[in-house]
């Protein structure tokens, strides 16, 4: 199992090319044909030969839910604390953005360290969630102060709606998660991130809005694109969880699943907040 986010894991994606569900009879008849864990110790217990799915240390959906609740809870808690403890001064808004950027950079570094580790490190993942929460709390407070007090609630509700819609579509098998889909999403994400990096560099050295990808009409377009990409990543995250449970990944892998879901939801929220800020700022 791997994190489906662009850089947060180097582990293999599942080998099936069909719908996100699983053909139990095919797996039972040929367990090594599609199981990405077939060539590692997770496919069967080396002592007893028991299938991984019945081993006591196999990952379950409850493990993923509990780890995700912990990481998202950390994000929310630190976001609320930072919002209350670091009041935004409209006359010195740059200070708030400086704090947010600093926390965001620390979160990014922790995420990159985790991405190069062979196993999930819960301390790194929780640390990432804590600093990401500071980033979101300060940014949300700044946007609420300068744009509209209700924009943050709207962004939260929007993020929840995207999550619920993708989960429903995934469960109904309306979303077909294949290798081609995976490759398309990754290519689109890399292109999106490169454009945003170029826009940030032009803004940093040239001033203003850079290439204009984050303001005005282009900002609205790229905000929608960012949210759609986040929805695609949610589908990949759900596939990651389903693969891990079905193929008997070790319990510790649930931390990576929680990590991937947290990163994706943070992505969707920030893009939603940016889009709503542009829309309400133009009123």
Walk me through what this model shows.
By secondary structure, the protein is mainly alpha-helical. Helices cover 67% and strands 0% of the residues. The protein has nine helices and no strands. Residues 1-44 have low confidence and may be disordered.
In short:
Helices cover 67% and strands 0% of the residues. It is built from nine helices and no strands.
Strand content: under 5%
Shape: globular
The class by helix and strand makeup works out as mainly alpha
- C-alpha end-to-end distance: 45 Å
Average of the residue pLDDT scores: 80
Order of helix and strand elements from N to C terminus:
HHHHHHHHH
Distinct helical segment count: 9
Flag low-confidence runs. Answer: 1-44
**Number of extended strands:** 0
Strand and helix map with partners:
Layout: H1 24-29, H2 31-34, H3 61-85, H4 93-115, H5 122-146, H6 151-171, H7 179-206, H8 216-246, H9 254-281
Helix pairs in contact: 3-5, 3-9, 4-5, 5-9, 6-8, 6-9, 7-8, 8-9
Key words describing this protein structure:
283 residues, mainly alpha, 9 helices, 67% helix, globular, disordered N terminus
């Amino acid at each position: 199992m791997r994190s489906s986010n662009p850089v947060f894991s180097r582990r293999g994606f599942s080998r099936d090319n069909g719908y996100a569900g699983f053909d139990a009879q095919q797996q039972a008849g040929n367990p090594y044909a599609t199981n990405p864990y077939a060539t590692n110790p997770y496919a069967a217990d080396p002592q007893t030969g028991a299938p991984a799915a019945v081993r006591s240390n196999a990952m379950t959906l409850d493990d993923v839910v509990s780890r995700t609740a912990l990481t998202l809870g950390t994000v929310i808690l630190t976001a609320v604390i930072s919002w209350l403890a670091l009041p935004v001064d409209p006359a010195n808004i740059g200070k708030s953005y400086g704090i947010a950027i600093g926390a965001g950079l620390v979160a990014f570094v922790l995420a990159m360290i985790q991405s190069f580790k062979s196993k999930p490190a819960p301390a790194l993942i929780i640390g990432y969630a804590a600093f990401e929460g500071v980033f979101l709390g300060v940014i949300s407070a700044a946007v609420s102060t300068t744009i509209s007090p209700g924009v943050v609630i709207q962004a939260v509700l929007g993020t929840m709606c995207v999550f619920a819609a993708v989960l429903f579509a995934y469960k109904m098998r309306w979303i077909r998660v294949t290798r081609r889909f995976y490759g398309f999403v990754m290519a689109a994400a890399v292109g999106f991130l490169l454009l945003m990096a170029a826009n940030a560099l032009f803004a940093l050295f040239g001033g203003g809005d850079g290439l204009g990808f984050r303001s005005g009409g282009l900002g609205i377009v790229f905000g929608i694109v960012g949210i759609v990409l986040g929805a695609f990543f949610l589908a990949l995250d759900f596939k990651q969880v389903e693969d891990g449970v079905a193929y008997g990944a070790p319990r510790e892998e649930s931390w990576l699943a929680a990590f991937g879901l947290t990163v994706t939801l943070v992505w969707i929220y920030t893009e939603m907040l940016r889009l709503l800020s542009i829309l309400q700022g133009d009123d």
